[in-house]
Write a structure and sequence with these properties.
Radius of gyration: 23 Å
Oligomer: single chain
Strand content: 15-25%
Largest sheet: 5 strands, mixed
Structural class: alpha+beta
Amino acid sequence: MTHVIFHIDVNSAFLSWTAVEQLKNGEKQDLRKIPSIIGGDQKSRHGVVLAKSILAKKYGIRTGEPVANAFRKCPNLVTAAPDYQMYRDKSRQLMEYLGTFTDKIEQFSIDECYIDMTEVLKGYSSLMDLALEIKNTVKSRFGFTVNIGISTNKLLAKMASDFEKPDKIHTLFPHEISEKMWPLPISELYMAGHSSVEALKKLEIQTIGDLAKADIDLVMLHLKNHGKVLWEYANGIDRSHIQAEQVDAKGVGKSITLSSDAETLEEIYPILDVLSKGVASRMEKLEKKASMVSVEIKYHDFRKFSHQKQLQKATNDQRILYQEACRLFEEIWTGEPIRLVGVRTAKLCHISTPEQISLFDVGVINTRNEKEQKK
């Protein structure tokens, strides 16, 4: 059966969500309509650019660059500090709305997800009617806009949603690949990083179409297994499936493949926070707590590493999971660009399982008892 996959991506999420919240609180100026960024501090100009408006992009401002550089490019730039709690709330609201259509949702990051709409389409005259309903409802109900990409697999849906923005719907079905995707620069191909692009250009591969028609053995000779992945992507081949929450009898986990490589702790911490909250929420629903937490990372070149820690007490407290995840990440990270981050818990038990009291706890209890006896 041919699947219909939607990729839904919030347009300039952090900036849009901040703008919506500011307007709701009486602000007259819409950050989305002026040169603006999210990140750092207006006065100190420290930090990095987390999100930018369309007008800021025209000044050459890039996500991830120092805020000070952005102000050199555009002295009249307006900046706002990030509010990660608010972003989590906006993301949750969006996912809850999308969940009214189907539970076949894979949240890809805080601001984007894949949805298998194959069964949902039965209630609509066309897939475009369904996409329009989602896009327009998000705009009217929440105040921000999304792009929707539609295809038969996740890769092509993702590529489609990255076409013209904002507030657009695009299709990229297999028969449209040669017309819509192949003319694009090779740098536009999903997962084609800077080093891969430079290597392909040396082989005179300039467009996605050039790569699709290239000799796969030649590509693999220069880029190993990653070259095979890129060649398959250039031909629209993607064998992955929608993966909802990762839950099994042994543990609960969530991971996010980033839309662009993360290179700073300022980018990573909010992601770990979102993942920890998702894991904690799922454990609460399952009435579980965990005595082990682990962090998984995948670098830009697809090397995978994980690091785990045994907790003193089983927990499903999001704050504890986040703190431990940050420590584990800092211990394992080499400083190289990150493509995927995951948080996982293991050694689950029911929330009613009695806890083993530590010597420290015994001391605290005895001290309290002594105080009570003296009263």
